[in-house]
Amino acid sequence: MSTKTLSTQSKEIVKASAPVLKEHGEKVTRTFYKNMFEAHPELLNIFNQTHQRKGDQPQALANTLFAAAVHIDRLEELLPAVKQIAHKHRSLNVKPEHYPIVGKYLLEAMREVLGDSPEVEEVIAAWGEAYGIIADVFISVEEDMYKEAEAPSGGWRGFREFTLYKKKPESSVITSFYLKPADGKDIPPFHPGQYISVQVQPENSQYKQMRQYSLSDAPGKDYLRISVKKEESSGVHPDGTVSNYLHEELQEGDPVLLTAPAGDFMLNERSDRPVVFISGGVGMTPLMSMFNQLTGIGSEREITYLHGAKTPAEHAFHTHLGEEAERMGNVQYAVCYEEGNNKNKDRFVKGTGFIDRTFLEENITHSDADIYLCGPGPFMKAVYGMLKEMGVSENQIHFEFFSPGGTLQ
Questions:
Q1: Whether pTM exceeds 0.85
Q2: Least C-beta-crowded within 10 Å: which of 49, 178, 182, 270?
Q3: Which of 407, 382, 370 has the alpha carbon at shortest distance from 266?
Q4: Contact predicate 162/256, CB 8 Å
């Protein structure tokens, strides 16, 4: 953590501001982003504009500010959250010089929303002191991550050019993109479950677009693979700007800029306990990296893969998972389709509708298993709740949200 300490007076003022931030935090953060982007449009090359439009990012920042206020005298308790955010920042190539800009417009947004009075100025002064300390923590943690990313053979800092050498449709909505370094040099090792950032600039976009995609294959290959769902897009809600660009415009042989693998959602490879993967839709991508790592090394752990998809046509990697279950005696695989009646009598289809507690109880046979969960927010909340009802402890469940600020509570 930072070697600087917050004055006692400022600490008390920040803690006392927690209820105000809980009430007005999202308005503060929306104002902050609006004003900052107007003054520094170049930062639009970094931030995910879809998350801005949906309100995910402002809400996530508001939650972070509230947590900082509550824990200001015990910042070490925020370290896990700091590291998770720092992974995202490192992957987006956030730099130390960005922090003073953020601090300036965040404090100005507080003043704009809370009003101009001596009491508010006191709060802003205290938060200015606190922000400096928190920013120093992030800068230090992120610098360590930059050094860690560039240390191994093939490692790098910032952006590196890769070439798309293969596009492979995996389902009606998901395509895999195989990427190799343009310089022909090594690819560094990564942890199964991590992600990379992709930077592109579609023709209809004024700014570069950055998106983070999970690596969907095991490490140790001469390529990095991402598997991307083509999101529905419209003029009103252009949520699929990057995914549509990748599916429709990016061609084999085209260059793509990537940042090095990042993220703290990782397979615990030191564990010898049974492992259960539970995914919904495209949430299977980081779990496929974990699954392929275990099966690729011939792990003797009991492996169960459970997946929920809307239809068979939208289900990626079904053939591969089924073949691995046939090949390896320690692999169990079961699917639940929201729509469809299993006319082809696929033996791996063991449920219809949404994954429910019965499906989980029938297919999770080890009470001590490590469980990895990923998918849409409502899916994850539902499955998490059912696992807890089944007596699964929190420390057995590991999960990843694709959108900022997700919670299972």
A1: yes
A2: 270
A3: 370
A4: yes
Encoding tokens for residue 348? 């791996």
pLDDT recorded at residue 357: 96
Relative to beta strand 275-280, strand 224-229 is: unpaired
Break the chain into its structural domains and give their ranges.
Answer: 8-150, 160-258, 275-400
Distance CA 239, CA 299 (A): 39
105-108: Cβ within 8 A, 24+ apart: 105/32, 105/35, 105/36, 105/39, 106/28, 106/29, 106/32, 106/131, 107/131, 108/32, 108/35
Q: Out of 3.40.50.80, 2.130.10.10, 3.30.70.100, 3.10.20.30, select the CATH number for domain 275-400.
A: 3.40.50.80
Architecture of domain 160-258: Beta Barrel (2.40)
Three-class DSSP category at 305: strand
Query: Which active-site residues does the annotation give?
Result: 99, 142
pLDDT given for residue 177 in this prediction: 98
Backbone angles phi, psi at 186, to 5 degrees: -65, 160
pLDDT at 237: 44
Binding residues for heme b: 89
Annotated binding site: which residue ranges? 89, 195, 211-214
Tokens representing residue 320 in the block:
């591969």
List, for residues 204-256, the tens digit of each pLDDT value.
778 888 999 999 999 999 999 999 999 876 544 456 889 999 999 999 999 99
Neighbours of 94 (CB within 10 A): 21
Helix H or strand E segment including 308: strand 303-309
Nearest to 167 by CA among 213, 220, 227: 227
**Which architecture, in CATH terms, is 8-150?**
Orthogonal Bundle (1.10)
Nearest Cα to Cα of residue 245 among 215, 281, 209? 209
Tokens representing 11 are 């600490």
How many other CB atoms are found less than 10 A from the CB of residue 287? 29
Counting as low any pLDDT under 50, the low residues of the chain are: 235-237, 405
* Kind and range of the H or E run holding 178: strand 174-181
Question: What CA–CA distance (Å, rounded) separates 54 from 85?
Answer: 19
pLDDT at residue 73, rounded to an integer: 78
